[in-house]
Design goal:
heterodimer; A: MetI-like fold; 3 domains; 16 helices; B: MetI-like fold
């Protein structure tokens, strides 16, 4: 994974090549003979550790296919005897889970689309357009990161109550339409963006909007993908605000819906685990598909 | 003469036009975002300050009662308990979380096979939702059917209450929280380690530094800004600890896992003491602000002293 930085050749010898040769030779000496077949010591720690990290999820999936008698047996069943789908059937038919899932898709999908549009527009404005007040506004925007949502949540509830959108999906979507983090991500991407491409566009007679839509945005796909992925994961996983803003079961998101299983299905762990599997699957799929971008987004946010 | 004056006037007018169009474009690009973000943070922040001076019950505005809420919270045993629990979580999680993250990142920061596989495994708990993970761990630590208790039993150890034991619940939550955040800490530290210039490490080894010496005296000081960032980030996250509590213990048993934010939520949305809840929320705000400032000032001073 480490990339060798290009250095100018020194006295005709490329230092990077030279060092790599020495390292290879040392490596050959260190791992000559049978030792070569042993794993590195780090592997002996990392391998069990990484398995331990995903083991709870494996257990979750296995349990979701067990019958209640398998779950309740002592000692616990590790591998289910057959694939029992009663837990899934129970969750899908006896609870409002299909509604919750649909609501989560609507809320997260709207959040992703809105943030891609609004954050890239605002990020571009702060990076490229020298408008009056831009510095102050950017500072105010970043300062909001210091205000915990828990401080503003009570008045936000009251404002949304006044607007009449408490207990509707709109109450969940509006706070997710844009975000300081998303704007900052796009802002730092556009700042590093080569100006020459846009200048070429202006010379060819494009106006600002054409340059933005036809030249900048197509080249911003990596940043947009990163923003889309973190927005989706965050919107999908949110619990605190939906728990407060939504009161009727048909409008719950999956996360809020899941918490209602506690107590109600006390001993029906198969159903509960089936619910958590279906709740976790979408974020895991998005994460696995866009892992590289996701890592870039969370590491990029701190380097700027 | 006159023509040059005209040219200057024309240039000024053109400049003005360019500046005006930049203002229009800039504000229309950034405006919608600014209205939403600033409107949903600064207005509620001021409103919360006012609410904290009233006895609002969430439904009605309530009456202005001055600083009575703030006087009450100084004698509130539950608030003291919530602060104590939150500090306990920070003490349990922060040092272990950062040290383990750095350790694993160091192991991953070498030519090693399966690095992609490891990173995926470590990040999965960070990506999955706290609600699902809370339910999952109430099952895993279930005193009747849970695998952990079955494992203890198989080893001949006594059964434990875990999340149902007031003296253990916070420790179990700290472990679960560590598990969810581990991958994030690794990824951040790994990015920082990969940014350290190989030349600096080479220079250290030419000067006779051992691998441990160059790690401790070169790598660790170089990535100190990242450590400070992670510390502040994690501290804010710990101060806002809610989801896992809500999906496992609901603050119990005997308030042993009552955190600041759980208490705020309970006050405002369960007991309908919105005014008092807002006052406690301001305590949260000032505690995090002070923590951030102290961490930044301390971090900067250490760097200067280096």
């Amino acid at each position: 994974m480490t990339t060798e930085q290009a250095r100018p050749p020194f006295l005709g010898v490329d230092l990077a090549v030279h060092r790599r040769r020495i390292e290879e030779a040392e490596g050959r000496m260190r791992r000559s003979g049978w030792r070569r077949h042993l794993p590195k010591p780090a592997q002996l720690i990392l391998m069990p550790l990484s398995i331990l990290m995903v083991l709870p999820f494996v257990w979750m999936v296995l349990t979701s296919f067990m019958t209640n008698s398998e779950i309740n047996s002592i000692p616990p069943t590790i591998i289910p005897h057959g694939i029992y789908t009663g837990g899934y059937e129970n969750v899908l038919s006896a609870s409002d889970f299909p509604y919750w899932f649909l609501n989560s898709i609507i809320v997260s999908g709207s959040a992703v689309v809105a943030q891609l549009v609004l954050c890239s527009l605002a990020g571009y404005a702060f990076a490229r357009i020298p408008f009056r007040g831009s510095t102050v506004m950017l500072i105010l925007l970043l300062a909001t990161a210091l205000i915990p949502f828990q401080l503003t949540v009570i008045p936000t509830f009251l404002i949304f109550h006044e607007l009449g959108i408490i207990n509707t999906l709109a109450a969940l979507i509006v706070p997710q339409l844009t975000s300081a983090l998303g704007i900052y991500l796009m802002y730092s991407f556009f700042q590093a963006f080569p100006k020459e491409l846009e200048e070429a566009g202006y010379i060819d007679g494009c106006n600002l909007i054409q340059v933005f839509a036809k030249i900048v945005l197509p080249l911003a796909k990596p940043a947009l993908a990163a923003l889309g992925i973190i927005t989706f994961i965050q919107a999908w996983n949110d619990l605190f605000w939906p728990l407060i803003a939504i009161t009727s079961s048909h409008k719950f998101t999956v996360q809020v819906g899941l918490t209602t299983f506690q107590g109600e299905h006390e001993t029906q762990w198969a159903s509960i685990m089936a619910g958590t599997v279906m709740t976790t699957a979408p974020v895991l799929l998005v994460f696995l598909a866009g892992q590289r971008r996701f890592v870039q987004a969370i590491t990029g946010a701190i380097k700027g | 003469m006159t023509s040059s004056v005209d040219e200057a006037a024309i240039a000024r007018a053109a400049n003005r036009r360019i500046r005006r169009s930049a203002n229009i474009a800039g504000w229309s690009f950034a405006g919608p975002s600014l209205v939403i973000v600033l409107g949903l943070s600064f207005i509620p922040m001021v409103w919360a300050a006012y609410l904290s001076l009233t006895n609002s019950d969430l439904v009605s505005g309530g009456h202005f009662i001055g600083s009575a809420n703030y006087a009450a919270l100084r004698k509130d045993p539950l608030l003291r308990q919530a602060l104590r629990n939150t500090v306990l979580l920070a003490l349990l999680y922060l040092p272990a979380g950062l040290a383990a993250g750095l350790g694993a990142a160091v192991m991953l920061n070498q030519k090693i096979k399966l690095i992609g596989f490891y990173r995926t495994c470590f990040l999965v708990p960070f990506v999955a939702s706290a609600a699902a993970e809370g339910l999952l761990f109430s099952f895993i630590f279930d005193p009747d059917f849970g695998v952990v208790d079955a494992g203890l039993h198989a080893l001949g150890l006594p059964r434990q209450g875990f999340l149902q034991d007031p003296s253990q619940a916070m420790f179990v939550l700290a472990i679960v929280y560590f598990w969810t955040q581990f991958g994030f800490n690794i990824v951040i530290y790994l990015a920082a380690l990969q940014d350290i210039s190989q030349d600096v490490l080479d220079a250290a080894s030419i000067d006779g530094a051992s691998r441990w010496g160059s790690f401790w005296h070169v790598a660790v000081p170089t990535i100190r800004p990242v450590t400070i960032f992670l510390f502040v980030w994690s501290l804010i996250d710990v101060l806002q600890f809610f989801d896992l509590v809500y999906t496992t213990t609901k603050g119990g048993p005997l308030n042993s896992t009552l955190t600041l934010v759980y208490y705020i939520w309970e006050l405002a949305f369960q007991f309908f003491q919105a005014g008092y809840g807002a006052a406690v929320a301001y305590v949260l705000f000032f505690v995090s602000l002070v923590a951030i400032i102290v961490a930044l000032v301390y971090g900067r001073r250490r760097r200067l002293a280096l």
